[in-house]
Amino acid sequence: MEELFTDILIIGSGVAGSYAAMHAASLGAEVSLVTKTKLLSGATRWAQGGIAFPSDPNDIPSHLMDTVKAGRGLVDERVSAAILTDALTQWKHLVELGINFDALPALEGGHSKPRVLHIHGDESGLHLLTFLHSQLPPGVSTFENHFAAELCSVDGQVHGAILWKNGDPDKPVAVHAGATIIATGGIGQIYSLTTNPEESTGDGIALAYRTRAKIRDVELVQFHPTVLSNGGLISEACRGEGAILLNGIGERFMPRYDQAAELAPRDIVSSSIHSEIIATGKVFLDLRPVEDLKHKFPTVYNSILDLGFDPLKEPIPIQPAAHFLMGGVSTDEHGATSVANLFAAGEVASTGFHGANRLASNSLLEGLVMGSRTAGKAVASEPAAKRRIESSGVPGCAAGHQRAIRHIMANSASVVREEKSLTEGYNEMLGIEVSQAQSLTEAETANMRLLALMVLKGALERRESRGSHLRSDFPHTSPDAKHIEQQAGNPGAIRG
Ligand SMILES: Cc1cc2nc3c(=O)[nH]c(=O)nc-3n(C[C@H](O)[C@H](O)[C@H](O)COP(=O)(O)OP(=O)(O)OC[C@H]3O[C@@H](n4cnc5c(N)ncnc54)[C@H](O)[C@@H]3O)c2cc1C
Fold first, then answer.
1. Is 2-215+323-380's fold the same as 393-481's?
2. 448 Cβ closer than 6 Å to some ligand 1 atom
């Protein structure tokens, strides 16, 4: 087997992994940055809305308050205050490096003031990531088309990973790493309608779970309220600029649900749309009030035209779709997981910043801040002792099962959930057979199945409604805000 030795292995080249790589290398570490597709991959490159930076130090308490309010009792205020304070340092660092933020901050849903910075309008993620990649120092070696198939742990300590070159199980590469950072993004692909790209199959969480890392709150999946039938997203910023929601009989309904109307937090907008779709058949977004839509939101404008609608002439049909995972691999405020020498940053991690509902544009911010913090901690940590690493087998499911997984999730663990369909979905999902993976797609499908089971199990266990998690049979929020943890090896834990 081909072997590689590195100080820091970073799995995933989105905002969190790329920024972590920049920082770890600037601290003198030798870094290997791997991605299963291209460097420019993952959700980051699709981010439209921008990055929510506190506008100045005086704005930190108000940004924190908005974050806490959206998170519905599960935001860790200590961690969040630290992230928001570091945010200004990262903003300054990026500006010094030469990034060009657009002149004026935008207002987005859930924010009490305009503080969301864009780069080239609604192509913020693409330009941010391209910029970060242009800044990668020579200490970073990049590996495209290298699929992280498994983490190697011995005696409760991670020593690196087995990668499949070009996604081929017959071309394994053993990477011996002093520390391993997972930055593999989200899990949207387990749902039939999602804004997430095809890489978002939950690999990092599955890998971490199999090393017995603690996983937290994965039932807390945020549904973006305004998504086109092909998964194309209409940014919140459009509602910030005046777009309104209409139901199937042409009535504006959001003022009936929340005093902030279209600018209410995502969970409220998504559940209101869900109710109106049930009551009136359809919901539309009317973008005609947005001034200069074509130039301010070119991506939105063009993707609507591609679907055969003209947003300057008519309201556009939309629906909620799986968008962002608040939970993930449980970490402390420096990205350390419960397993020695394993770190996690970005959407794959659960730091406590997003609680039960992420505030718009807080995730690129978290990716930057936690990318740099995690890199600092990983570089400073005692490196894993050299051990022989080998594959212990990668679970796989036939690729054809992806459709069934998505169908089950759409029917049982979507915007509104209840015991009966969650239980049926869980049992059906358990019935999907697992064997040894013969290809990348089979390994991804087994990861999707595992994540789907974890979401269903967490959703069954969370017998309350909180943030993005709505139970029609438990409509109230429990007075105790609790995390739901899952860990392999515990009694009743999922196997796979
Ligand atoms: C359409 C859309 C719009 C959004 N808009 C905004 C916004 O305006 N503002 C905001 O703050 N947030 C936004 N978000 C959310 C935000 O983009 C993501 O949460 C964030 O970019 C995640 O970054 P990440 O680095 O954690 O992961 P990602 O950017 O998803 O990157 C994951 C990386 O991991 C790699 N990878 C995955 N599995 C493996 C494996 N097994 N082996 C090797 N590599 C692997 C992928 O190839 C990729 O390189 C949006 C999300 C979407 C989908």
1. no
2. no
Pairing of strands 416-417, 470-471: parallel
- Pocket test residue of 9, 10, 15, 133 for ligand 1, highest count of atoms within 8 A of CB: 15
- Counting from 1 in the atom list of ligand 1, the atom nearest the Cα of 194 is 53
pLDDT at 416: 94
**386 contacts: CB under 8 Å, gap ≥ 6:** 159, 176
Q: 366: CA distance to ligand 1 center in Å? A: 12
Return the CATH fold of 393-481. Answer: Methane Monooxygenase Hydroxylase; Chain G, domain 1 (1.20.58)
For residue 266, indicate whether it is catalytic.
Answer: yes
**Under-70 pLDDT residues of the chain:** none
pLDDT digits (tens, 9 = 90+) for 425-475: 999 999 999 999 999 999 999 999 999 999 999 999 999 999 999 999 999
Q: What is the CATH number of domain 2-215+323-380?
A: 3.50.50.60
In this prediction, residue 266 carries a pLDDT of 83
CA 478, CA 461: separation in Å to the nearest integer? 13
Judge contact between 381 and 179, C-beta under 8 A. Answer: yes
Q: Is the CB of 187 under 6 A from ligand 1?
A: no
**Cβ neighbourhood burial of 94 (10 Å; 0-12, 13-18, 19+):** buried
Q: From the CA of 364, give the closest atom in ligand 1.
A: 11
143 Cβ below 6 A of ligand 1: no
Question: Tell me, what DSSP letter sits at residue 316?
Answer: E
Q: Which CATH class is domain 224-321?
A: alpha beta
Q: Would you kindly state where each structural domain of the chain is located, as residue ranges?
A: 2-215+323-380, 224-321, 393-481
